[in-house]
Each structure stands twice: as structure tokens, then as C-alpha cells.
Amino acid sequence: MGFQQHGNSELGLSAIALGSKNEYKRMHSDLPEGDDDVLQQEARRNSTRKYVIACATFASLNNVLLGYDVGVMSGAVIFIKEDLKISEVKEEFLIGILSVISLLGSLGGGRTSDIIGRKWTMAVAAVIFQMGSLIMTLAPSFSILMVGRFLAGVGIGFGGLIAPIYIAEISPNTTRGFLTTFPEIFINLGILLGYVSNYAFSGFSAHINWRIMLAVGILPSVFIGFALFIIPESPRWLVMQNRIEEARSVLLKTNESDREVEERLAEIQQAAGLANGEHYEEKPVWYELLFPSPSLRRMMITGIGIQCFQQISGIDATVYYSPEIFKAAGIEDNAKLLAATVAVGVTKTVFILVAIVLIDKKGRRPLLFVSTIGMTICLFSIGVSLSLFPKGSFVIALAIVLVCGNVAFFSVGLGPVCWVLTSEIFPLRVRAQASSLGAVGNRVCSGFVAMSFLSVSRAITVGGAFFLFAAISSLAIVFVYVLVPETKGKSLEQIELMFKNEHKRQGSEIELGDVEVQQLVQDKTVLTD
């Protein structure tokens, strides 16, 4: 399977030139002769950049909630076990159920965002999560704790799905990868805050400390409410609702020239026209997803596959159960265990910055290769260190270094790029709901890993579990090599056309070349080859 490589083309809708390098040519060709106009253009460029970054930042706040829950629960569960007297099976269930329940939010989030918009779906997510966090904080028993956990999971499913889609739909082509990594950045920030919260409040009594830890997770929801008054609706969703002038108004704020605004709007209108059935007999979205055309099937294999590999390679086991890993290495004191997890959180957060810098310069595939290869080596080495060496200071140091190395490689590629790809490869008509299927696969795999890690570790040892993760991670390398295309610098509409025009390739490179937008007009069907 491969992707046909196209050369730079100057043909297109209304003779508009599009391509990976033409963004810059277009920008500079619009610069007027006078110095004042040049300064105005530069001022607009800076203003646009700041506005889009602000939108991406506010849209990503929901992801802090997911990250915080992941980080805080790794430590809070130590004290929940002591306070509520729960078994190891209930511990696995408590941790893993969030991921399983979040798939309900993911499934509902795609359809909800198509009806009420991307922006207000994020608001619904924040409200549901806030309710869940409050119930968990006040829970007098394990049963009530699980009710709160259920609501928190639904909220996380809604928010985690929509943020990358929203950001991809408002971002300029040349910075879309950079901006779409923001949700992953905020997940990492949330994980770090959760670890810090565990360490900061661990000194309180076991009846109080875990409740404080969970209560702190309510705070980001307040900022999300504020953000709703600042961020606009997605221009692509507005076009789907035939609110063209509103879409143009948003594009004027997120693109650097009037000409570029009209080009983007023309592309979106044409894609939305096809998606709304102007050129073919309209079918329900669910029918298209259940019986996909060959091109949509390839998109779904790529999108859902990369989402599943992100989780079954064991990242949630590393993050949720890092205290268990360090305990297996020889750390026994709870305070020292939680302090070690802070190092994991710091590493995971710092290395996401590498992805931010490189994703639009080097592309998606190179980062995925570095990430999956590095993770495979670290996971295998963790298995070796815990299986072949006795507990002691050497193994403790080695385990901390290797766990930090694993999360670092994850943050460089598989963590952020997974969500970037899923948000940009699907056609406009099915984007939200197809992305929700990818998020469901992600959450199911996350829940499976989180709910089985302790049992698997008891059966084959902690070291054996990491040998298993290393084997799965090695398969991810093959998956990326064979099935993941390079989407750097292309508009969402161009990426859609590339999947439709895919041919068998010779050699090892998968490259999405320049695409003539004129094909959008010529195509008689949406997702047929």
C-alpha cells in the first residue's frame, strides 16, 4: 500500500496554486510595495499567529483533565486502597474503567459535535467531568466513587476527541502539526500536575489526601468556561451549516492574507458541497463508516490503527503503574515512590516540546519512527533490568532512567502525532465521527492495558509484561512503515484527495505530493476510487 507522488502543480480551482511550498510563495507575493503596507502585513501576520495559538491553547484545556486524572490516580489509589479497603481487582477496575467509559463519550462526541458544533461540545465535556470529579471527591464508598469515575470518563471521552479536530480545522496548513500537538502537551502537563499533587498532599491522612488530590482536578474546568467566550467556532463546521459569512470571519482571523482566506474558503465549500451530497446520492455517515469505500477504509485503518498502537505499546501501564514498577525495582517508601513519578512527569512534559519544534519541519513519519524504535528499546531494557538483576540501587536507577526514556520517546512521536494524524486524514463529512472511532479504539486499548497490567504482572512478572510491550511496540514500527503517510504542509482537503488518488508504490517512501484542487470539482463521488 502506498501513496502516489505528485509534483508541484499550478493547476487548481480558479487557477489557485496549492502545495507544500506554495504557502510561503503566496504569503510573500501578497506583500505590497509600500513600507507601511509591509508593516501592516507583518502586524496582521503576528496578530493571526497569536490568535490561532490562543485558540489552540484554550481548546486544549480539556486535555489537562485527562492528563491530571491519569497522573493523580497513580498515587491517589495507594491511599484509596488504605481508606476504602479495596482489593487489587477493584484497584485495576478503578483505574482502567475511566478509559473504557470514555469510549462512550468518544462515540457520542463525534455526533454531538456535528450537531451543536466543536466549541460547545468541549463545553459539555467540561461540565460532565466537573460533576464526576465532585462526586469522586465526596465519595463515602467505592460504589459512589465509581459513579463519579463513570461521569469523569464520559467527559474525558468528549473533550479528548474534539480538541484535536477543532484545532486542525482552524489551523493554517503550515502550522497545523505544531498546533495540533497542543492537546498532547496539555495531557502531559496534566499528568505532571497530577504527580506533583500526589507528592504535595501525601502528608495528609489517608482519608483526606486522595480527596484533595481529586478535587484539584475541578479547577481547569473554570478556565474552560472562560475560554468559550474567546475561541470561535470551527470554520469548516460553519460551512457545513451553510453559515458562510461566519466562516469567512473566522478564516480572516486565522489566515495571514485575504487571498489565502478565499482559497481556504473555496476548498472548504467545495469539500462541504461534496460531503453534503451535491455530487452523489447522500448516505448516512454511519453507513459510510460501516461500509467504507476503499479510500475511506485506508483512512480508517491508518487512523484507528495508530490510535490502538499508541496504547497497546504500554504507555498507560508506565504512567498509571509507575509506582508499581519502581517498587519492583526496590523502592519501598511511598514518598520516594511518588517523588520518582514526578521525574517521569517532568520528562514526559519536556520532551513533548521536541515534537512541537519538529513536527512541521521534519514531518509526521520521521518522528513516529524515532519514537517507536526508541520505545521498543526502552521497553525491552526495562524487562531485562527487572528480570535479570536483583533489587537494589542500581536497578532502581536503571528503572527510573528507562521509564523516563520510554515516556520521552513516546512524547517525541507516538503521543502527539497519533492525534495529529487522526484529526487531519478523514474527509469533512465523516471527520468527527470517524475520529471518534479512532478515539474509541484508543480508549478500549488503554482500558484493557490499565485493567490487566497488575494481573499480567502477577502471572508473568513485571519484567515479562514489558517484554510483551516491547514486542507490540516493534509491530508499531512496521505499521508506520507500511501504512502511515506523510501529511506535512498539506491542507485537509488535499490529504483527502491523496487517499482517493492512492496507487501502489515502489520503494519505501510514502509521500503526499501536491494536489490539484481542481480534482474536487471533477470528482463525481466522495469516497470512491
Automatic annotation (TrEMBL):
Gene3D superfamilies linked:
MFS general substrate transporter like domains
Q: Where are the transmembrane segments?
A: 51-80, 92-110, 122-144, 150-168, 177-196, 208-231, 337-359, 366-389, 395-422, 460-484
The highest taxon in the source lineage is: Eukaryota
| Record carries keyword Signal | no
Q: Name one Pfam family in it.
A: Sugar_tr
In the UniProt record, which is one GO cellular component term?
membrane
- What's in the keyword line of the UniProt record? Membrane, Sugar transport, Symport, Transmembrane, Transmembrane helix, Transport
**SUPFAM superfamilies xrefs:** MFS general substrate transporter
Where this protein primarily resides, as one coarse class? membrane
Q: Does the keyword Secreted apply?
A: no
Which Gene Ontology molecular function entries are recorded, alphabetically?
symporter activity
The membrane topology term of the UniProt record is: Multi-pass membrane protein
Question: Where is each Major facilitator superfamily (MFS) profile domain found?
Answer: 55-488
Protein's cellular compartments: Membrane
> Which InterPro entries does this entry report, sorted A to Z?
MFS_dom (IPR020846), MFS_sugar_transport-like (IPR005828), MFS_trans_sf (IPR036259), Myo-inositol_Transporter (IPR050814), Sugar/inositol_transpt (IPR003663), Sugar_transporter_CS (IPR005829)
The UniProt similarity line reads: Belongs to the major facilitator superfamily. Sugar transporter (TC 2.A.1.1) family.
Q: Which NCBIfam families match?
A: SP (TIGR00879)
The molecule here is called: Probable polyol transporter 4
Tell me which species this is from. Vigna radiata var. radiata
